[in-house]
Automatic annotation (TrEMBL):
Catalytic activity: phosphoenolpyruvate + UDP-N-acetyl-alpha-D-glucosamine = UDP-N-acetyl-3-O-(1-carboxyvinyl)-alpha-D-glucosamine + phosphate
Places the protein is found: Cytoplasm
Pfam families on file: EPSP_synthase
Entry GO terms, CC: cytoplasm
Keywords, comma-separated and alphabetical: Cell cycle, Cell division, Cell shape, Cell wall biogenesis/degradation, Cytoplasm, Peptidoglycan synthesis, Transferase
Organism the protein comes from: Pusillibacter faecalis
Gene3D superfamilies: Enolpyruvate transferase domain (3.65.10.10)
Organism phylogeny: Bacteria, Bacillati, Bacillota, Clostridia, Eubacteriales
Gene Ontology MF terms in the entry: UDP-N-acetylglucosamine 1-carboxyvinyltransferase activity
Protein name: UDP-N-acetylglucosamine 1-carboxyvinyltransferase
């Protein structure tokens, strides 16, 4: 943002941003961050001249944002590649636009079916957006088919361990699905290795899963999940958004009642997760 001409004061734990005018520049990201790419795209639409974002994130959400901005009158190109180009200064207008399905929510409900057993049909979900997740679930023993209508997942037997799961920028395995898949594999036959390559401190959910009887050993960026015969319901708390969703997935596979506290984390990324899981047959309720 500063490269575009913004003045940003980050003292006191707050961000105060202002700019008399923004000017297009070439910006090279040190990491292909989704949030950084999206915010730069938005800011560049209001800047004078052309902005090029190099080493941009390639996630489907970037392409979706480009399509939305162009529908509003912007001129953005290159989304889905490593370079996004924005021609700033064009007047924007309103539009009617359908946002893409949430691929991490879709992955969560597929993992829920894998953990608890049964069948789920996700209408409108697009497998091309989460192919790395469905590939692992197939390897674990789930039957998954997809078409233009959505994704169907059937799991009628105990899962088996899979080859090492390594998180990576898109199109690699998404870090946001790491905790959720881990929860689905807690009762699998054998051991699965997870390697977290995007964020630090991404295993905060492990201690909470251990309260339910999970066997997980963590060393640095690596976690080894050894499947157990039985998980037990327990009082647990959300440590973050995806970790909270992982607790819900694990609770579906556990015997007895699980109480999940601090669910505000989950609400950041799911619209009434208990409603959707209840529709799939789960015995779940929100206690205000």
């Amino acid at each position: 943002m500063r490269t575009l001409g913004a003045e940003i004061d980050d003292t006191g734990g707050m961000l105060h941003c202002r700019a008399a005018r923004l000017r297009g520049r070439e910006i090279v990201l040190s990491l292909p961050s989704v949030g950084a790419t999206e915010n730069l795209m938005l800011a560049a639409c209001g800047a004078e001249g052309t902005t090029s974002i190099c080493n941009a994130a390639r996630e489907p959400e970037i392409t979706d944002l480009q399509n939305f901005l162009n529908a509003c009158g912007a001129r953005v190109s290159g989304a889905g590649s490593t370079t996004v180009v924005i021609e700033g200064g064009h007047k924007l207008h309103g539009c009617t636009y359908t946002v893409m399905p949430d691929r991490i929510v879709a992955g969560t409900y597929l993992c829920a079916a894998a953990a608890a057993g049964g069948t789920v049909l996700l209408q409108g979900a697009r497998e091309q957006h989460l192919a790395t997740v469905t590939a692992v679930l197939r390897e674990a023993g789930c039957d998954i088919v997809s078409d233009s209508a959505g994704i169907a997942c059937v799991c009628r037997r105990r899962l088996r361990a899979v080859r090492p799961v390594r998180t990576a920028p898109y199109p690699g395995f998404p870090t946001d699905a790491q905790a959720i898949l881990m929860a689905a594999l807690l009762r699998s036959r054998g051991a699965t290795v997870f390697e977290e390559n995007i964020f630090e401190n991404r295993y905060r959910h492990v201690d909470e899963l251990a309260r339910m009887g999970a066997d997980i050993q963590v060393s640095g960026r690596t976690a080894v999940v050894t499947g157990v015969e039985t998980l037990r319901g327990a009082p647990v708390r959300c440590t973050d958004l995806r970790g909270g969703a992982a607790l819900c997935v694990a609770a579906l596979a556990a015997e007895g009642e699980t109480r999940i506290a601090e669910i505000g984390h989950i609400d950041r990324g799911y619209e009434r997760i208990e409603r959707d899981l209840r529709a799939l047959g789960a015995e779940i309720e929100r206690i205000e």
